Amino acid sequence: MKYPFSFFLFLCLTHTFLHSQISSNWAHLDPIDDNKMGVSADKAFKYLEGSDSDTVIVAILDNGAELTHDDLQGTFWINIDEIPDNGIDDDNNGYIDDINGWNFLGNAQNENLKRDTKALTRIYGELNKQFKGKEQPELLEKDSVAYQNFLEIEKAYKSSVKETTDKIKYFETLLKDFEISDEIIKKKLKKEEYTFEELQKIKRPKGNVAIAVDFMKQLKNNNLSKASLVKRIGDYQKDLETRLNPDFKNRENIVGDDPNDLTDTDYGNNQLNVKGPYHGTSMAGVIGAVRNDFGVNGIAKKVKLMILRIVPNGDERDKDIALAIRYAIENGAQIINCSFAKAYSMHHDWIQELIPEIEKAGVLVVQGAGNSGTNNDEKPYFPTGRDLQGEKSTNWIIAGASLPDDNENWVAYFSNYGKTSVDVFAPGYKVGSCKTGNKYDQGSGTSIAAPVICGTAAVLKSYYPFLTGQQIKEILLESAHVPKTEKVNRPGPGPKEKVKVKDIAVKGGVVNLYRAVLLVEEKFTRSIGEKTKRKP
Questions:
Q1: Residue 500 falls inside a structural domain
Q2: SS3 state of residue 469
Q3: Which structural domain range is residue 263 located in?
Q4: Less CB within 10 Å around the terminal CB: N or C of the chain?
Q5: Confidence class of residue 235 from pLDDT cuts 50, 70 and 90?
Q6: Which class for 18: exposed (0-12), middle (13-18), buried (19 or more C-beta within 10 A)?
Q7: What number is the average pLDDT over the span 428-441?
Q8: Residue spans of alpha helices (H) in 85-206
């Protein structure tokens, strides 16, 4: 029986680190008082106790949300100008019965999209139609640059297909090894079913029994089972059929709009709790789960969450991002959470064109940097938070993910980074939040760091409503907690390389609410007098 050595090596190297016990509320703790690099939310609320505050509207652009979750009751935005379920656009905003937000991934017959293609797949599909079967000498000179672009896209697309195919083969090998190991252990124990405890009690196993026992222990320790292996194989096969298939037309068949026409806006519905909105529910919990005696606590207290469903299983469309941002602004959102990022974009200019509108409205946008451990300065992830001239928006924060302990690993190994493109870090590893099915779980990723910052920004806006999105961004970056460990392991795969944090982000620190509150009061409250909502 032969096992892939790289698999064992990976498990052995990562098991202790990935599965260390971390309290799910660490993101709320204080770096000094609690020795965890959270955002000091608990400490900030204690300081702010007794002060006046406003309710803040936070738009969540994601895959929907479980509106019935116990720990989110009372937190969802309600469009008071719309009469529920009467089939009329009462407020004339272009959306019928948009009570809690809007679903851009559905149609008027309440059919809803779950899977869609990746942006890379779409771009490859379009270029392949144009250049398939052509050699460079056949092309006119004006097409040569476009053709070179096609060759690069084709290479990236085929690489992605191969990577997915290799993963299928890899997990199929593991599944076969599982079945072999399972038979060996059944024979050793002389029973068809056995528990993990019985597996551990096998004394001094030798030969194939020893290999089988070790293999099964590694799977168990890393939460892998026969069922999970089968699921992974099925998911990757589904990716080949959908996300990486240029001929997959789910958008056209279900939503029915032209995704390449920004003026085609008559689509969608008001269904937000559809197709398993696990991700958006988690984002909602991080930002605004009710701070009570059960479940988890959101970073913010007085928020109303506007749910805008735009993220399928696949890449979000630039058209949906642009229209959702405009919806959020026009319907009163003060902060917008974008827990998504992609390596390719077909119509990024549609989002860039919105930057002046976002800045004029004073709205703050917070976006995750991406989870590939790569440099966004060298290979951008979209949206970039930059306008058509390439200038960074003063109201847009790109968030990297951080870990709880002040050591060489405090910048999350999976987080994207960039000296000019990633603004600041925030807790993004095993952060407690809400889960669909009225449950709770821990989430990791820059998609978690973004709502942590959104929640922090919402508290500032709540207690200091005079702050603009630009000022909140400035405050959060200036007041960020700078860990003692100045050099960290550069995120991403490969050999570990020590780098200065200031060389991988605009601000080499972790967002901190308590420090931000103190900075606001130092900078603003002395000069604005009665304008502040804070009691003296």
A1: yes
A2: helix
A3: 53-115+258-511
A4: C
A5: very high
A6: middle
A7: 97
A8: 119-131, 144-189, 196-200
